[in-house]
Amino acid sequence: MAEAKKTGGLAGIVAGKTAVCTVGKEGVGLTYRGYSIEELAEKSTFEEVAYLMLRGALPSKGELADYKARLKSMQDLPGELRQTLELIPGGTHQMDVLRTGCSMLGTLEPEGEGHSQLDVADRLIASFGSMLAYWYHFHAHGKRIETSSDEDTIAGHFLQLLHGKKPDDKQRRVLDVSLILYAEHEFNASTFTGRVIISTLPDFYSAITGAIGALRGPLHGGANEAAMELIEKFSSPDEAEKGILVMLDKKAKIMGFGHRVYRDRDPRSDVIQKWAKELAEQHGDKRLYPVAERIDQVMRREKNLFTNLDFYSAIAYHFCGIPTPMFTPLFVISRTSGWAAHIFEQRADNRLIRPTADYIGPEERPYLPIEKRG
Ligand code: COA
């Protein structure tokens, strides 16, 4: 059992090479193509980071302007995709909306002639927010919204479609920073899924669709929604402390804590915590942020566990006025840039990813005809 735990889940196994990102490397922490996450989150924008991911270098001023214009021109959705979004039931998990939207777009604008892998990557990054907002307004308010906006950033575009008005500057920047933080994270489960899929040489959309499926679970991307649900359960820090102690006593996992690679801290969490606090204060919040902070303290004290990016992202998104079921889909918009970089990298030097397993089943035995089985 202990042995299985040590080696299970491919923990500590080097499964390939990448030039995209370092995670938890001593003295370096998290870097995207050599740039530290702290610096990127402070000084850059998500569009610069997406450009860096997909094109390998930070853009010049002119290149960034062109790239933003390109993304803006790719925000709108084809009629058939809108119809599909209308057919997806209103109660659907919103990750399933994006998974289906991605797959459908792959039938309308298949990768190949006229749609290079770079075109598809940009198209998905530009249009995922439109898909989510279109589906949401159609089902929640019976409205068919326009999916273009006058905002020229991914964050601003999404917030404008969601709220139907020009976004608040701070909310736009907080969402932008969170998209930077979520963009890439080496061989995490969804990225590895994408690499496995693309290694069999299918189209680009297949790999992204599979990656969305892997991201949906609460041990991975789904943790930000689960963290919000947890925080919202408590009406005060004292109540939260009692509740968390009971959960720990029952050996429950507390969502938004711990990490497979980081051991002491997740560098992304400090960045988003600062923004979450600022937004909470701006909203005069006296409950959610203090509850979150107490859960953080209890987890450090009791389990020596630290918050990962998902924990305080939940608070930040909440105070951007974003409904909880949209938290993980926002992660998709951002991580598509990282997934795409890995897909390009895998394709450039591909070998089918096909590991082997230790067999622990029965010895070879004779086949019994059905009438002789008990
Ligand atoms: N809450 C409570 N205990 C936790 C925990 C958490 N969030 N994360 C890890 N632990 C404990 C485990 O129970 C285990 O304790 P044990 O050795 O006494 O059994 C120990 O820490 C190691 O955890 P394990 O689940 O084996 O680590 P892992 O590397 O397989 O898992 C995660 C990493 C991220 C999946 C795990 O920390 C987790 O489930 N976190 C919550 C989900 C989450 O926030 N996911 C987003 C990741 S960015």
CATH superfamily of the largest domain: Citrate Synthase, domain 1
Strand content: under 5%
Question: Strand pairing plus helix content: what structural class?
Answer: mainly alpha
Would you tell me the overall average pLDDT? Answer: 96
Taking Cα atoms only, what radius of gyration do you get, to the nearest Å? 22 Å
What general form does the structure show? globular
Query: In whole angstroms, how far apart are the ends?
Result: 33 Å
Helix count equals 17
* Biggest sheet features: 3 strands, antiparallel
- From the coordinates shown, what is the CATH architecture of the largest domain? Orthogonal Bundle
Q: Please indicate the count of domains.
A: 2
* Major sheet: arrangement of strands: 1-2-3
Structure notes:
- By secondary structure, the chain is an all-alpha fold.
- It has two domains: 21-220 and 327-348, Orthogonal Bundle (Citrate Synthase, domain 1); 223-318, Cytochrome p450-Terp, domain 2 (Orthogonal Bundle).
- It is 58% helix and 3% strand.
- It has a three-stranded antiparallel sheet.
- The mean pLDDT is 96.
- The protein binds coenzyme A (COA).
Sequence-ordered SSE layout with sheet pairings:
Blueprint: H1 2-7, E1 21-25, E2 29-32, E3 35-36, H2 37-43, H3 46-55, H4 61-73, H5 79-87, H6 94-108, H7 117-141, H8 154-163, H9 169-182, H10 189-198, H11 204-215, H12 223-232, H13 237-249, H14 267-282, H15 288-303, H16 309-318, H17 327-348
Antiparallel strand pairs: 1-2, 2-3
Helix pairs in contact: 2-9, 3-17, 4-7, 5-6, 5-7, 6-7, 6-11, 7-8, 7-17, 8-9, 9-14, 9-16, 9-17, 10-11, 10-17, 11-17, 12-16, 13-15, 14-16
Bound molecules: coenzyme A.
